[in-house]
Amino acid sequence: MSYPILAIVEDIKNALRHSSTVVLQAPPGAGKSTVLPLQLLGESWLKGQKIIMLEPRRLATRSVAHRMSALHKEEVGQTIGYRIRFDSVVSKMTRIEVVTEGILTRMIQQDNALAGVGLVIFDEFHERSLHADLALALCRQLQQVLRDDLKILVMSATIDGRKLSESFGGAPVITSEGKSFPVSLYYVNPDSDVPITLRVARTVRTAIREQPGDILVFLPGAGEIKKVATLVEREVGDALILPLYGDLSFKAQEEAILPHPTGRRKIVLATSIAETSLTIEGITTVVDSGLSRIPRYDPRSGLTRLETVPVTADAADQRAGRAGRLGPGVCYRLWSQGMQQFLVPHRQPEILEADLTPLILELANVGIADPGELQWITAPPKGAVLQAKELLDELGATHNDKITDRGKEMARLPTHPRLAHMLIKVIHDKRLLSLAVDCAAVLEERDPLATESSADITLRLDLLRKFRQNQAKGMDRFVLDRIDRLVKNWCKIFGVEADNSLVNHYEAGMIIAYAYPDRIAQQTEKNSERYKLSGGRIVRLAQNDGLINDEFLAVAHLDGGTREGRIFLAAPLDKRDIDHLAREIEIVKWDSETNRIAASLEKKIGPLTLSKKTLRAIPEKKRLEVLFSVIRQNGLSFIGWNEEHQLWQARIMSLRSWRPNEPWPDVSDENLLDTIETWLSPFLMNVNKKAELQNLNLSEILSSLLPWPLLDKLDVLVPLRIKVPSDSWIKVKYFPDGRSPVMEVRLQEVFGLLETPRINEGQTPVLMYLLSPGFRPVQVTQDLHSFWSSTYAEVRKELRMRYPKHHWPEDPWTAQAVRGVKRKS
Known about the structure:
The protein is 35% helix and 20% strand. The protein has 27 helices and 33 strands. α4 runs parallel beside α5.
């Protein structure tokens, strides 16, 4: 056994003996996943307890368990076993359990002390999956609170060990150099017009001709693997084309991983699973498509789905390194050398961009309401945490940050909380449960129909049921087979049989609504493509989609990036099936078309209205609230406010400014609108229309704002008119800001008036605009006496020229004031 890890195994044992947490950096092929756990099994500090090792992928989980069992000369399920979603091979004898990351979280849910477990190993931690981060945070809390004897070993080929050590408070870092040979890199300039599968196939043909030994080809997924296999199968000669991806049988996986018994050349077409955890023997050449398929939160579905993205720089290096394990190797990269420098250095931790609903439910299930209680390598974003909590509350999984009985049921199911809620809601009806199982499987997998197909999910359900009866012709059988395998796993869990009867469209819609209560959609108008979601957003169907005939839909998948998202998967809803979700609300509002209050009793789901009936008796409080709201929106003019009321307002506000020691009220527009409930309410009995508002006796209402003593003084202090020598009563203009009041009067009407008129008990002079016979200003003054003495003579000359028919006396002090034309004597 010449594994490089053996050179440092004593260092690792010693570090674990003295530290609770250790970081191990070791390249692929060093033996860290398969040899090291076996070497640690007999350590005294383990005290006969189990080792749990987390792997990020199901394929690696099974393969590593089988490889260790082979090294240990046993069958899987004895000393070494594994657990993955829907499959486990363990026994009472099992001491090492290789598990996918989500499994450990469920183990902690069932036993929050992890009794009987002495060491938890996090393999390939550089992938930074959401479940790995969560499991590590929970294990660290266990160490600090309940299990100071629990050991943690974090292993990776590429992660920054020193930085990780710092987050563990200075945990020891041990490094294995491994062994590798130089790899020659050939960059194949990309052609964007050619599909990636065809470009990969061309490069594989080149590698077959130019290079000896086995070839490892990296592709994003099983679909691409099958296409490339078809494209190159005629040109590989005696070589074997072997696929390698997660859903293959273990026998098929082993065939790809191990050397051929007769030494035949192999061309292994693999997903990114072959980057690290698995050792594929005999590889001397790598062909890298430059693409990877990773889990990413999809806001269209509310679920985490696989997305194809460019490979990161560290992953590209790991892929190339696979060619240099036996001797000098070759790697063909299907991107330019110039593009290499723009590759993202490392994958971003999934926790920063994932849907955190499953994480928050898992935490609630172990009694943690606030993720901040845990020590994270990367803390979950607060906004995503809040969004997850709101959804769990809506699903009934949590209440006041505590898990409910329904939430505990949901946490036990190996799926997203949305789908878990959907399945639990129909668990007591076998027929509906069979339909829900089909729905869950369809929603978790790729769409088996073309993108231009109708969004109706029931078409997919009918297709799945035809597939099970061997009646689905010309369809994507690969996707349908994956969906059907999921269905079988769910049927096994719930003890139900798959149902192949015709799907009731409305029942499918009702079931989808259980998973997506925030995505119940109502048509904005009859036969429209546009729908409003119960969450408030507007979404639309593709043109001519058959679902346009339905007023209500339950939307599962939709576009997460645009303002008006497109609906990709939905089912029709019978309004009666969602009636229980609605709340009866009294709606009292202002109808701007009829200019009156409208009242109705409505059944609503968020902003959606299921039914509506007119209310004859309008609740008094709500009626007044609506009236006050519409008055504030439109201003005082809405209640008949006119020049008369503006003048009254200006007089009061002037006195408020001039006489600050007296209790003149603030009757500005702003304060009147702010206090409208106080002064207007008593006068709004039985008022429901704009016309009735404008018929109010506003002058009388406003006068009620003044105490009686002030009301008596108002006309005395700020008269509406002032009598001048011509016996005319001239209007006085006032201003709300307390400026001098203004009186516009023809000059001829004030002959004989010796002093400027004063108001406010003589304290405030009026600003006089003296006008010509044509009502044009000839002088503005607040000192009439001075005007007569100094300026009048000049003004008189000009007026005599302009108005020769009028009398312009030399002595204005004693001249008779006139209203009209007084002829010259």
